[in-house]
Amino acid sequence: MERKCLWGFFLFLLIILSFPDGISAQNKTSSQAVYTEALRLIDIWLEAQRDYERLPGMSVAVVEDQDIIFARAYGLADLEKKVKASTDTIYSICSISKLFTSVAIMQLRDAGRLRLDDLVSDHLPWFDIKQQYPDSGPITIRSLLTHSSGLPRESDYPYWSKPDFIFPGREQLREKLGSQKTLYPPSTYFQYSNLGMSLLGEIVVELSGQSYDDYIQEKILKPLGLQDTRPYLPKELWRNRLATGYSFLTRNGTRERLPLFQAEGIKPAAGFSSTVLDLARFASWQFRLLSRGGEEVLKAPTLCEMHRVHWMDPDWKTSWGLGFSVYEMDGRTVVGHGGSCPGYRSTLMIDPGQKQAFVVMINASGTEPEKYARGLREILKKAAPKKEGAEDPAVNLEDYAGYYDAQPWWGETVVLPWQGKLALVSLPSDNPAKGLTLLRHIEADTFRRLRDDDTLGEEVVFERDQSGRVVRMVRHSNYHPKIKSVK
């Protein structure tokens, strides 16, 4: 795995990097030029997926270091009121809330108020869960952060059950704790625990002397300028800027509107709301801190520590940092978290080494924001600046760009210019970058498929009408009429 935490690098680098947030306009323009074709494909792909998967609404942001290089929204924040989704639409981010609680705990650690290996009972005298394994190790703050404490997943209330999704308050959580029992010996298995993260929120309250909301607002959200992130769902904005949540698809292809909820005593684990733009800023803060070093909300070494694996499950498949999910993707270390609450799914995927992050929010259950984040990342990996001596075809590739009918075998095929060639992408697609087919121009309206070994495959011919417009693609002797042009 590649892992870089260069917070203590040479002095001259710190000087160079000490100018105000954000890269230069020249670099930003250059970066966007590299990704122009990729961002166009991303927009087309997400728009199609929203329709094919019948998503109510979806907001997306892509970050490169200090820049948001892509931010779009698709569909509706409220189906009945026809409120359009936007990049300012607020969603429940559910378990991404855990990252903010984890940052708060690490702030208190750095301030000398706690140690990661302190017993939970050292700070919460009322922590009286029944330990089924008295000869096992201790339940520590570290074990709560890494979900290896052996605690059950939830407080003993049915708050994930419809129709009302009623969450317990802090006192109710405490009252039930004594009647619950541990599930495993501590430091034995990974067991995701909303109960454990809620207890970390209680430790924040106990040690700070502030309410949880006030601490998070004062110590994290305000310093980072996250004005649309809250440790609750703003009721007054529901069904407008706060997206309405919808259920999994029913058999008749519809989604049920779900009621607004508040996570109450579970808010440190699942209660936050935010926008894709705010979480993009949250990611940029991490890139900035790791690059420049010093201290901004956290000390740079502390964030680096949070991104490092602190727990590996015995199955060697599940690894966790301090609050962050940590995993390998294409030989790189990726960190982040996902969120799933009634009516909402979200993900924040961060590649610290590449300084890229992907944020996806959807106002429906049973959806896969992680799939879209992976697809976004794969498409950007395919992008590359134009090289010297690269192909410069004698035709205008935009003439061929458009959607072509692929029925009854598939939905549609989109054709786009791509690095001096044409790219064919089938829609819908879980990962269009992996299914991207390249065509090299031969002559007139004739192209040939470019094989993986750079040799040429079958011909693909485009036909025009009398006015000169491309109206059909012929491949393998079969016709694919052009449905419409692309933006």
Task: Describe this protein's structure.
The protein is an alpha+beta fold and 487 residues long. It has two domains: 373 residues, 3-Layer(aba) Sandwich (Beta-lactamase), CATH 3.40.710.10; 88 residues, Lipocalin (Beta Barrel). It has twelve helices and 21 strands. Strands 14-15-16-17-18-19-20-21 form an eight-stranded antiparallel β-barrel. A seven-stranded antiparallel sheet has the order 3-2-1-13-12-11-10, with helices on both faces. The protein has a two-stranded antiparallel sheet with strand order 4-5. Strand 18 and strand 19 form a beta hairpin. Helix 3 packs across helix 7 and helix 3 crosses helix 8. The protein is elongated, with a radius of gyration of 25 Å. It starts with 10 loop residues before the first helix and ends with a strand. About 5% of the residues have low confidence.
Which helices and strands occur, and which strands form pairs?
Blueprint: H1 11-16, H2 25-52, E1 57-64, E2 67-78, E3 83-84, E4 91-94, H3 97-110, H4 120-123, H5 141-145, H6 170-177, H7 194-208, H8 212-224, H9 267-270, E5 272-274, H10 276-292, E6 295-296, E7 298-299, H11 300-307, E8 311-312, E9 319-320, E10 325-329, E11 332-341, E12 344-351, E13 356-362, H12 369-382, E14 402-405, E15 412-418, E16 421-427, E17 437-443, E18 446-450, E19 456-464, E20 470-475, E21 478-484
Antiparallel strand pairs: 1-2, 1-13, 2-3, 4-5, 6-7, 8-9, 10-11, 11-12, 12-13, 14-15, 14-21, 15-16, 16-17, 17-18, 18-19, 19-20, 20-21
Number of strands: 21
Structural class determined from secondary elements: alpha+beta
Overall number of domains: 2
* Tally of DSSP helical segments: 12
CATH class of the largest domain: Alpha Beta
Helix content: 25-40%
Terminal Cα span: 39 Å
